[in-house]
Specification:
By secondary structure, the chain is mostly helical. The chain folds into two domains: 10-203 and 211-216, MFS general substrate transporter like domains (Growth Hormone, Chain: A); 218-420, Up-down Bundle (Growth Hormone, Chain: A), CATH 1.20.1250.20. Helix content is 79%, strand content 1%. It has helices at 2-7, 15-39, 44-53, 56-70, 74-95, 101-130, 133-169, 172-197, 209-214, 218-226, 231-240, 243-257, 269-298, 300-312, 316-324, 328-355, 362-402, 404-409, and strands at 417-419, 425-427. It has a two-stranded antiparallel sheet. A hairpin with a 5-residue loop joins strand 1 (417-419) and strand 2. Helix 2 (15-39) runs antiparallel to helix 3 and helix 15 packs antiparallel against helix 16 (328-355). The longest helix has 41 residues, at 362-402. It is globular and about 60 Å long. It starts with a helix and ends with a strand.
Length: 429
């Protein structure tokens, strides 16, 4: 009776917190770390290179995904990774006061990235096990909303909080220590909450010794993915569709923070938290919502070209800011425009990745696609800081705009598709 009750636990009690917990570490590792290191005096090239490497676990997560399926339960994996994330962020807080803080904190971020990627696998798997097909469809928008709220919390509230602490304490390392200690405490609370509130789906069982010895059809999954029609065009599309955005994202916050004489806008940490973390993320969400409506109304085939253009053209907002160095109040609408365009264009990208994930291995194929997607974010980020330091912000943003060309050209190489009512791809004969 007790187990049955746990299986039927209200989904509203755990889905919002689970996807909030999925979003926070991603934004802390990949976005907030950039602002932290900028405020700690690290140069742009080092920031962009090393924080871009933090994408690697999300590139590689498809490789250890089968292990999450084979060993223990998804529920146990969720709890384990959440308590580990609490420890990672607590250790980051401690590391910021060490003489070699950069190396030690970067190590903590690397561990947090691997743990967070594993949490993503277990959380998404648990979602599919704990809910019926109808509930999965119903809650897909809810989980997306709370993932976005996590982004606002991380890049907005936490950065704003750090900025206020910098002003009141006059001590940058101590301010960020408090922020990351606070983040670790939040994950400790999330772990305790989920330990008692997550249901126990009957099909979320440990594998038998025989199942473990047989393993997952690992090589077959990859073979089926890379044998699909037009795979080279698909990979080219995944890698280059967001190439310009991938270069921009690592330098956006440093640009906003840098002084006027260095070519930046000279915003404070708190102002960046508001501009990029709240106004920017809200615009990103609105763009994503509109993008979903446009695709549902007109179909992906008709929408993808204009949405790809809309993704890239607003990058000109950063070029304008670099040329004019406008007052702070103009940074709000300009960043909002760029993020809105990104949200709109990124929706088409993600829908296409879902469309090409077919057959019995569609979950694993989607994981492979998102892994390649993370690689497409990592590679441009590795070199973006060095390019910016070599040419300055103005020419850097010109290059970012130029990177729209391979992104748009990639659309010429993907297989032609026709949408069906069930959302699958029908290849045009």
């Amino acid at each position: 009776m007790a187990v049955a009750k746990l299986e039927s636990r209200n989904s509203w009690a755990w889905i919002p917190t689970l996807y909030f917990a999925e979003g926070v570490p991603y934004i802390l590792v990949n976005t907030v770390s950039v602002i932290l290191y900028k405020r700690m005096g690290v140069d742009n090239a080092q920031i962009a290179f090393w924080t871009s490497l933090l994408y690697l676990p999300w590139v590689l997560k498809m490789l250890w995904g089968p292990l999450v399926d084979l060993y223990s339960t998804k529920r146990n994996w969720i709890l384990l990774t959440q308590i580990m994330l609490a420890g990672c962020f607590g250790f980051t807080a401690f590391a910021l006061h060490l003489p070699n803080y950069f190396i030690v904190s970067l190590f903590a971020f690397i561990i947090a990235a691997f743990v967070s990627a594993t949490h993503d696998i277990s959380a998404d798997g648990f979602y599919m096990l704990a809910l019926s097909k109808e509930d999965q469809a119903f809650f897909v928008g809810i989980r997306s909303v709370f993932y976005r709220i996590a982004m606002i919390f991380g890049s907005g509230f936490l950065v704003f909080f750090a900025g206020q602490l910098e002003k009141s304490l006059g001590n940058i390392p101590l301010s960020w220590t408090i922020v990351f200690a606070f983040s670790g405490s939040i994950f400790l609370l999330i772990f305790l909450y989920h330990k008692f509130i997550l249901p126990y789906p009957s099909i979320d069982n440990k594998r038998t010794p025989k199942e473990i010895s047989e393993g997952a059809p690992f090589f077959k999954i990859f073979s089926e993915y890379f044998k699909q029609k037009g795979i080279f065009g698909i990979i080219f599309f995944i890698l280059f569709y967001r190439f310009g955005e991938a270069m921009l994202v690592k330098l956006a916050s440093p640009f906003l923070l840098d002084k006027h004489e260095a070519g930046g806008l000279g915003l404070s940490t708190s102002e960046v938290g508001i501009v990029y973390g709240t106004v920017g993320v809200l615009s990103l969400i609105l763009g994503g919502i509109l993008g979903g409506w446009v695709i549902s109304k007109f179909g992906l085939k008709k929408s993808i070209w204009p949405m790809a253009i809309i993704l890239n053209v607003p990058h000109a907002a950063y070029l304008y800011m670099a040329l004019v160095q406008p007052p702070v109040y103009l940074a709000y609408p300009l960043v909002a425009i760029e993020q809105f365009g990104y949200g709109l264009g990124f929706t088409a990208f993600m829908v296409y990745l879902m469309y090409i994930s077919k057959g019995i291995y569609k979950t694993s194929h989607y994981a492979i696609s998102t892994g390649i997607m993370a690689l497409g974010m990592m590679i441009p980020g590795l070199v973006s800081g060095y390019i910016q330091q070599a040419v300055g912000y103005k020419m850097f943003f010109v290059i970012v705009l130029g990177m729209a060309i391979p992104g748009l050209l990639s659309l010429l190489f993907i297989p032609t598709i026709e949408e069906e009512k069930n959302g699958a791809i029908a290849e045009k004969k």
